[in-house]
């Protein structure tokens, strides 16, 4: 249940009707509201009933080119079918109210920002952490920064499992939510996209104004010389140095995780301690600490990212959070600071969030269908990629 005072939220925005002059008839139909902040016309949003949407993750892109031996092992390795969590049913009359409210905020905001979490990628088959069927519910705990840098054994274990995990997760395709967000950006209705995700699916979906709060798995960085290079290059080196792992490993048991980790069923002939770690291609140090260019749990976000996020917060007058429980403080702070400065604040997420006591509208739905209908109202395509 969420409470949404549309007129008060619109009063926070600098009204700019000219940005929707081509959609005036739609505005009159779906946004018949009073912009007086003293209005008492509240809309109470309640979601009745619970029912599975039976959504299926996208299939993997078979056109990706990887080592043929590894490819043969990966043919039957897909994301878990239950990656998409169950969502309550949104009744038609409530749906129209919700759509009109979000539509109005996009129309009248001058600097809308979207913040996405792992739940935005579940429709692509990438599991999340905190939903009832997420990674945490299955007992998985991601590796901590100090665990990674403090033990070569932990690093070997991480990269051995990532040898399998990266090809799988790199094949994930952007879903309806990613594509609709890119369309909203290209149409001028979204100025900034901040993502907690490290899967680069926003860029694949056509977005360009993306700030990666926690980095990306598509790059590897050397903690010694700070050189950064593509993950695909690192993958090729790992395969070359560890060919026996490709020949002898059994296929993963489908326990794919949000950070690209997989549970491996190892042959008795394999031991993580025998896994060979590459040198840094820049400093050529055998002692170099090569790490995915992501912010691990327990690691600080780069100061340059902090500065950029603060600049975005200052400009934001409408924040839409998609697929995030906001449990990580770095994301919760964005929501809290935007709310405190008077920005309109909406959440689309299945399950509780850390900001439930301050959010003005919360929709417990999968984001893709909602955003596609918003694009329809704004006369935007569902996707800007072919």
Description:
The chain is an alpha/beta fold. The chain has 13 helices and 13 strands. The chain has helices at 6-12, 24-30, 68-74, 92-108, 145-149, 152-170, 176-186, 201-204, 231-241, 243-248, 303-315, 329-340, 367-377, and strands at residues 2-4, 43-45, 50-51, 87-88, 112-116, 192-195, 210-212, 215-222, 228-230, 290-294, 318-322, 344-348, 361-363. The strands form 4 sheets. It has a 6-stranded parallel sheet, with helices on both faces. A hairpin with a 5-residue loop joins β8 and β9. α4 packs across α13, α6 crosses α9 (231-241) and α7 (176-186) packs parallel to α13 (367-377). The longest helix is centred in the middle third of the chain and has 19 residues, at 152-170. 43% of the residues are buried.
Q: Between the first and last Cα atoms, what is the distance in angstroms?
A: 38 Å
Shape: elongated
How many beta-strand segments?
Answer: 13
Helix content: 25-40%
Radius of gyration: 22 Å
Uncertain regions: pLDDT < 50 for 5+ in a row?
1-7, 14-82
């Amino acid at each position: 249940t969420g409470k949404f005072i549309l007129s008060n939220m619109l009063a926070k925005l600098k009204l700019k009707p000219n940005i929707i002059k081509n959609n005036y008839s739609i505005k009159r139909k779906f946004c018949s509201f009073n912009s007086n902040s003293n209005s008492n016309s509240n809309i109470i949003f309640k979601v009745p009933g619970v029912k599975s949407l039976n959504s299926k993750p996208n299939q993997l892109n078979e056109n990706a080119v990887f080592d043929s031996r590894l490819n043969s092992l990966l043919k039957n390795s897909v994301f878990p079918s239950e990656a998409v969590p169950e969502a309550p049913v949104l009744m038609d009359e409530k749906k129209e109210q919700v759509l009109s409210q979000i539509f109005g905020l996009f129309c009248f905001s001058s600097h809308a920002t979207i913040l996405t979490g792992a739940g935005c990628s579940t429709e692509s088959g990438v599991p999340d952490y905190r939903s009832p069927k997420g990674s945490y519910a299955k007992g998985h705990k991601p590796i901590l920064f100090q665990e990674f840098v403090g033990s070569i054994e932990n690093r070997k274990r991480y990269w051995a499992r990532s040898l399998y995990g990266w090809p799988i997760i790199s094949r994930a395709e952007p879903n309806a939510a990613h594509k609709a967000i890119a369309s909203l950006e290209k149409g001028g209705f979204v100025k900034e996209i901040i993502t907690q995700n490290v899967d680069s699916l926003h860029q694949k979906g056509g977005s360009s104004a993306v700030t990666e709060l926690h980095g990306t798995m598509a790059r590897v960085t050397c903690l010694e010389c700070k050189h950064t290079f593509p993950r695909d290059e690192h993958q090729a080196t790992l395969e070359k140095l560890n060919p026996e792992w490709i020949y002898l490993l059994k296929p993963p048991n489908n326990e794919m995780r949000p950070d690209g980790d997989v549970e491996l069923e190892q042959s008795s002939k394999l031991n993580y301690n025998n896994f060979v770690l590459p040198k840094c291609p820049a400093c050529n140090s055998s002692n170099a600490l090569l790490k995915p260019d992501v912010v691990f749990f327990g690691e600080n976000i780069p100061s340059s990212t902090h500065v950029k996020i603060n600049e975005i917060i200052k400009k934001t007058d409408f924040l839409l959070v998609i697929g995030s429980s906001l449990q990580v403080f770095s994301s919760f702070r964005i929501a809290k600071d935007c709310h405190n400065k008077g920005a309109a604040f909406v959440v689309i997420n299945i399950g509780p969030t850390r900001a439930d006591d301050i959010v003005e509208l919360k929709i417990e739905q999968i984001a893709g269908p909602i955003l596609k209908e918003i694009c329809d109202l704004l006369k935007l395509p569902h996707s800007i990629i072919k």
